Amino acid sequence: MDRGQALKTTIPEEDYMTSGHIACPGCAAPIAMRYCLKALGEKTIMVVPACCWTIIAGPFPYSSLKVPLLHTAFETTAAAASGVRATLDIKGDAETTVVGWAGDGGTFDIGIQALSGAVERNENIIYICYDNEAYMNTGIQRSSATPWGAWTTTTPAERPEDKPKKDIIEILVAHQIPYTATATVAYPHDLMAKVKKAKGIKGSRFIHILSPCPPGWRMSDELTIKASRLAVQTGIFPLYEVEKGRKYTITVPRKQGVPVAEYLKLQRRFAHLKPEDYDIIQKNVDRAYERLLRKTKQSEIL
Amino acid sequence: MKKILMGNHAVSYGALLSRVEVIAAYPITPQTQVVEKLSEMCAQGKLKARYINVESEHSAMAACIAAEQAGARAFTATSSHGLTLMHELLHWAAGARLPIVMANINRSMAPGWSIWTDQNDSLSQRDTGWLQIYCESSQEVLDSIIQAYKIAEQVLLPVMVLLDAFFLSHTYEPVDIPDQGLVDQFLPKLDYAYKIDIKDPCSFGSLLPPEYYLELRYKMQKAMEEAHDVIIQVDKEYQQMFGRSYGGLVEEYRTEDAELVLVASSTAASTSRMVVDQLRDEGMKVGMLKMRFFRPFPTQEVINALKGVKKVAVIDRNISYGQGGIFCEEIRSVLYNIDQHERPPVFGYIAGLGGRDITPTTIREILSHTLKEDKPKENIIWIGVKR
After folding, report:
1. Of the candidates B49, B62, B206, which has its C-beta nearest A90's C-beta?
2. Does residue A5 register a pLDDT over 80?
3. Which of the residues A73, B103, B323, B378 has an alpha carbon 20 to 30 A from that of A47?
């Protein structure tokens, strides 16, 4: 078979990210950015707070993006994106998309006030959180996105994270914004379809991307896509979208018979967990997935 | 056209005339009327600006920074806790060389809760890289907002315009509102050279290794130094166009043959002016130096005004704990290198913190104490403290 033909892809060839970025090997964050920009196109302004992407973008005078990138203070992503949007509006530019691009620390923790403020105002911005489930850039400290049972440098194995991951999607849904969705880099078509759909909607849009971090998750570099896929298949990170704060749709259903253990065992951040801990996680995931299914059924009635 | 305006509304009219394009603001007493008026002006279409009702002052400054970086003339107003909440982003605005203008109503810091005036909120932003203009009247407030944009957009540093809580923010005075056509001539549309442009994608504020950082900070200081002449030039042009001048960085009042010079700022300067007139009538050789700019510090102007006078009395409505009055300390510092025989003793008075009134009697007390003593016995002389 012709090699060129075999590698043909349905992913658009235009790239708005350059090679030579400085992410760690296996990092999902640049993959996520690359797919998102393919879906968004060149008329995009990225607003990035302190996070791994501050580094990935490259130091002065370099940039790994072919679109403008405004670096901003840790807790200000959504407010800064609002400011850029305001200027575009007053200058009559309705075409350019303003995207806030922040990690879980900048979204779930320190930036949640500005995020809540911006989406409550229904600012015409897309906010994308790439979630690697801890403060990875500063050396793996827990955030409120860290899942129950996980080891981090501030939740050592002797006393691992003992609170559930904050349900950021439900917080956004409670603001009744036009569009909220989850995505992973293991399902690029699903991810790009959601970004494209978001781009076509006016108002506040939020996309939550699970972003495996090999050093922080204590796993091998080549497992990023596998971990992303298993997160979906086990139901730990379901792929779905919520329109107008009420219409829930699962876009990629979970796979029957894939236990959470398959996902957890890939990552040494869960190495200290006992079989009974696996059972607890399995029960919680099943319960949350059932709840999600009920919401999709309720939306059908609505 | 003259209108009877409160100080807060003088700020709003200054912003209106400057044709600001993005306003992001959060309410706080006693600033509230500034943003109420502006939001009304936007709603009525008098001001073509996007008004963002942000959820905090921190977000207000973040939005202004991003809006200005995208090429719009941005404005906000705040006070006290709002200003100090912005502190991180004040460094950011100046470091990014964005010509944002902000009004701050000088209000004391809690605890205990005080909505009344002193200067500790803004003076504790001293090292952020913002220019600071302390105003004496509502007219000066309005004129200073317009001047501030002209200065900021030339030197590419942000400017803070300051007015005393209640003594100025809520006091009504006749204010001349300049003609919009003339203001447009004086202050052309913003053409920010380093704005976000999708046709020329750049990264703004990226990671800056040690081989570059020092140079950018050197350039900030150079811009502050350059601001000195720009301030004087802008004030002159303003006078030519609108008939009002504030002396640039400082104003000397009846200092020609003065043996004792009183140094004051904000509304205390206004009261001092009246006391100086009274004492001159009584035959005393006193004058006043009004500190209009605190940053850049008017080093040469202070030396020119104070060298060779017999005594200097500085009124500070602020304090740097563990040192003293902030204006006083900086004035002593710039006088240190002049010839010893020309260097006057500098008496440092702290008065009026937390909105305690600085009355003509307070100023007379300060002056008579200064006349009585040869040189200051203490670093700080407290006025009116109930011990």
Report:
1. B49
2. no
3. B103
Taking the CA of residue A99 and the nearest CA in chain B, the distance in Å comes to 13
Yes or no, beta carbons of B55 and A60 under 8 Å apart: no
pLDDT of residue A10: 87
Torsion angles phi and psi, residue B176, rounded to 5: -80, 125
Closest-CA residue of chain A to B63: A83
Average pLDDT rounded to a whole number, residues A286-298: 97
Contact B70 A96 (CB under 8 A): no
**Which pLDDT value is given to residue A299?**
86
Which CATH number does the domain A14-301 belong to among 3.90.70.10, 3.20.20.80, 3.40.50.970, 3.40.50.150?
A: 3.40.50.970
Q: Evaluate if residue A199 carries a pLDDT over 90.
A: yes
Kindly determine whether residue A90 and residue B21, on different chains, have CB atoms separated by under 8 Å: yes
| Nearest by Cα to A42 from B107, B1, B201, B128 | B201
**Residue percentage of chain B with pLDDT more than 90:** 100
Q: Would you list which residues of chain B are within 8 Å, Cβ to Cβ, of chain A?
A: 21-22, 24, 48-50, 52-56, 58-60, 62-72, 74, 88-89, 92, 196-198, 201-209, 212
Q: Which residues of A touch B22 (CB under 8 A)?
A: 83, 86-87, 90
- Cβ contacts (< 8 Å) between B45 and chain A: which residues? none
CA dist B119 and B79 (Å) reads 10
**Chain A residues inside the 8 Å CB shell of B39:** none
Q: Is residue B282 packed enough to be buried (19+ CB in 10 Å), middle (13-18) or exposed (0-12)?
A: exposed
Closest-CA distance of chain B to residue A71, Å: 5
CA angle B1, B6, B12 (to 5 degrees): 70
Alpha helices in chain A (DSSP H): 3-6, 28-40, 52-56, 77-90, 104, 112-120, 168-173, 188-199, 214-217, 224-233, 260-264, 275-301
Task: Please write the tens of the pLDDT for every residue from B326-354.
Answer: 999 999 999 999 999 999 999 999 999 99
pLDDT > 70 in chain B, percent? 100
Backbone dihedral angles phi then psi of residue A184, each to the nearest 5 degrees? -140, 165
Give the residue from B332, B373, B327, B376 showing the smallest Cα distance to B351. B327
Q: What is the largest CA-CA distance in chain A?
A: 59
Q: What structural domains does chain B harbor? A: 2-242 (3.40.50.970), 252-382 (3.40.50.920)
Please tell me the predicted confidence (pLDDT) of residue A300. 72
Give residue-wise pLDDT tens across range A29-77: 999 999 999 999 999 999 999 999 999 999 999 999 999 999 999 999 9
From chain A, pick out residues whose CB is under 8 angstroms from the CB of B205.
Answer: 70-72
Residue A127: name the closest of A145, A100, A98, A105 by CA.
Answer: A100
Q: B205 with A72: CB under 8 angstroms?
A: yes
Which two structure tokens, joined as six digits, stand for A251?
């876009």
Greater model confidence, A285 or A19 = A285
